[in-house]
Design a protein that fits this description.
Layout (H helix, E strand, L loop, with lengths): L7 E8 L11 H17 L11 E7 L10 E5 L3 E3 L4 H13 L8 E4 L11
Parallel strand pairs: 1-2
Antiparallel strand pairs: 1-3, 3-4, 4-5
Helix pairs in contact: 1-2
Amino acid sequence: MQSAPPPISHHLLLCATPSKALCCPNPAVGAASWEALKGLVRELGLEDPARPQGVVLRTKADCLRICAEGPVLLIWPEGLVYGGVTPARMERIVREHVIGGTPIEAWIVRRYSLCPAPTAPA
């Protein structure tokens, strides 16, 4: 019998090395930001299934359909998109927003909201 998966606190999607470089004109910065994200998640123990707040998932995306100000980082469940995500910015975003709960407003380029769950007919 398989155990239940751990709860998820955040999912970080980084559009950093797209096949069509419309958002990230410098693929080297995108690749470095991805490496920084992977390293931070591991170093800070954010993938640990025993983490009380839940695990942090990370995904390298080819395209988030932002097409500007890349590399861009989309953070769920908040639906916030950060632009110009360098390795230095990545560290602050992970520490201040993901762990600390305080978004860095100056770097946010877009906000999305989750669709409300459908209600069952009465």
